Amino acid sequence: MTHPARMVPLTLYGRAWCHLCEDMQAALAPLLAEFGATVEVIDIDADPLLEARYNDWVPVLVCDGEELCHYHLDVERVRIALAARLFG
Questions:
Q1: Residue 12: how many CB atoms within 10 A of its CB?
Q2: In contact, 78 and 69? CB cutoff 8 Å
Q3: Which regions in the chain score pLDDT beneath 50?
Q4: Whole-angstrom Cα distance, residue 60 to residue 80?
Q5: Quick count: other Cβ atoms within 10 Å of Cβ 16?
C-alpha cells in the first residue's frame, strides 16, 4: 500500500564506485514503493566534510537526520522509521 500524500525523504550517503551502496539502493526500492518514500543519493566524495564523516561507513541511510543503517539495509528499522513518520 502506498501513501503518496506524505512523501518521506530518505538520504543515502555513498560513493559512485561502491557495490554496497548499489546493493542498498536496490534493496531499498520495494520499501520506497510501499511507503511512497523518496531517496536522495549523495556521493560523499563530492564533499570533503561528508567524506570525512562517512568515509568508512558507506552506505549510510538517513531519515530526518536519524542514521537508520550502514553497510547493509536494515529492512525492519527502515520500515519502522517510515511508518512512524507516515502514521506517527
A1: 18
A2: yes
A3: 1-5
A4: 17
A5: 11
To which CATH superfamily is domain 9-87 assigned? Glutaredoxin (3.40.30.10)
The residue type at 77: R
How is residue 59 written as a grid cell?
A: 552506505
Contacts (Cβ under 8 Å, ≥6 apart) of 70: 57, 58, 59, 60, 61
Boundaries of every domain in the chain: 9-87
Predicted confidence at residue 85, as pLDDT, reads 86
CA distance 52 to 34: 33
DSSP β-bridge partners for residue 67: 62
What is the structure's pLDDT at 6? 58
Length of the chain counted residue by residue: 88
pLDDT value of residue 86: 82
